[in-house]
Amino acid sequence: MRVEVEAAEIDASLEQAYRHVVKEVAVPGFRKGKTPRAVLEQYVGKEVLRKEALEDLVPDLCMKIIEEQKLDVVAPPNVEILQEDPVVFRATFSLRPEVELGDYRNIRIEPPSVEVGDAEVDDFMQKLRERHGEWAPADRAANFGDMVIIDLTQGEKGGEPRSHEGQQLLLVKDSILPLPGFCEHVVGMAVGEEKEFTLHFAEDYKIKELAGKEFTFKVKVREVKERHLPELDDEFAKSLGEGMDTIDGLRKYAAEALRRVAEDNARREYEDKVVEAVVNSAVRIEYPPLLAEQEIDRLMRDRDMALRDRGGLRAYLQSMKKTEQELREELRPRAVERLKRSLVLAKVAEQEKITAAPAEIEADVEAMKNSVGKEDEKIQELLSMPQARDVVENRLMVQKTVQRLVDIAMGKCGKKAEQEEEAGKEAKDGAT
């Protein structure tokens, strides 16, 4: 809204500002609080009083607008002073999002089937062997799957080269570490052999951070090791300390573990698919730009935390030669997607009358406290704060809402199921 402030309002606010400032400023020749307004204006400048006046007046006028227009706002307005004589300002109000859901109760999605075959179990057993293999010196040239100890000098074109001695490197085909193509150059080298090579990445290379760059390397192989794998027999099963006496028992245990993982992955993918369908079916999702910016802020904080061991977000941006604004724009599509999902789930929870009972919240908080241990007093204190319960309540609400949508998509939430659920609630309330 564009607002022109009446002269009388400005004068009244300037008088209030004068009464406040005159008590804080000592003017030579006058007692504190007794300086005439004209003298004070000359001493501190009219702009100081005007700034003080507007800092009180503008928020009051914005609040009056909110009340008169009955605006449902989610944050303080963003104010821009357009001119000062007369005072004109623009106030942008962030209104509560409006979501109109589609016919989500008729969405049906076939749940995935999960199968774990012999091939998956064989692959798991092979990886288990590799994990428990022993490295031994190999009297031959290096190959993929070997471990090499190398002396390395590397540098980006035009930069200062860096040297590292005794670096350990597992040679993996198509590995991107330390850089794509590096392992392929080391394969075939024998102990004592030296080699120099260059890796150049095209301007349109798929990894943006490497596009258009060139790196030079000087490598000397000090040692080549090969991995000796244990036999898949009963002794190997016993050596793992999982209570397995036979290799057949170990295979059965592996199959069950793989099935649990596959089922968890399938469940999460199915939930995402259902929620995505509900979001896409929404008729209208309107929200103020401020909420998208706040979601980007959260993603930026998450990125900063993830990069803490490497100097944080600032160091990452410097290494990638990016600005903070460029990264924000890269994160915007993901932030908007997360925001829409959150808004739709909140609307579904409202329509389905989903709630999280205080007892459920308390039980979840207590479980979290028990998991961190009483000795961690700082975490215990944080979990005791009202904000922690708000977070837990929000998480429980999301879980319950997603589960309701999953039941609907699987056809488990028909009229009969709803009646049974309502009867169950009434019985629970009566017992309470």
Helix and strand composition category? alpha+beta
- The chain-level mean pLDDT equals 88
Number of strands: 10
- Tell me the name of the CATH class of the domain at 135-228: Alpha Beta
Q: Helical element count?
A: 14
Characterize the biggest β-sheet.
5 strands, antiparallel
**What proportion strand?**
15-25%
CATH architecture verdict of the domain at 135-228:
Roll
Sketch the topology as an H/E string, one letter per element: EHHHEEEHEEEHEEHHEHHHHHHH
Which fold name fills CATH's third level, the topology of the domain at 135-228? Chitinase A, domain 3
Short description:
The chain is built from 14 helices and ten strands.
Structure description:
The protein is α+β, with helices and mostly antiparallel strands and 432 residues long. The chain has 14 helices and 10 strands. The strands form 3 sheets. Strands 5, 6, 7, 8 and 9 form a 5-stranded antiparallel beta sheet that branches. A 3-stranded antiparallel beta sheet has the order 1-3-2, with no helix packed on it. Helix content is 53%, strand content 16%. It starts with a strand and ends with a helix. Among the domains are: 2-93, Alpha-Beta Plaits (2-Layer Sandwich); 135-228, Roll (Chitinase A, domain 3), CATH 3.10.50.40; 354-432, no CATH class.
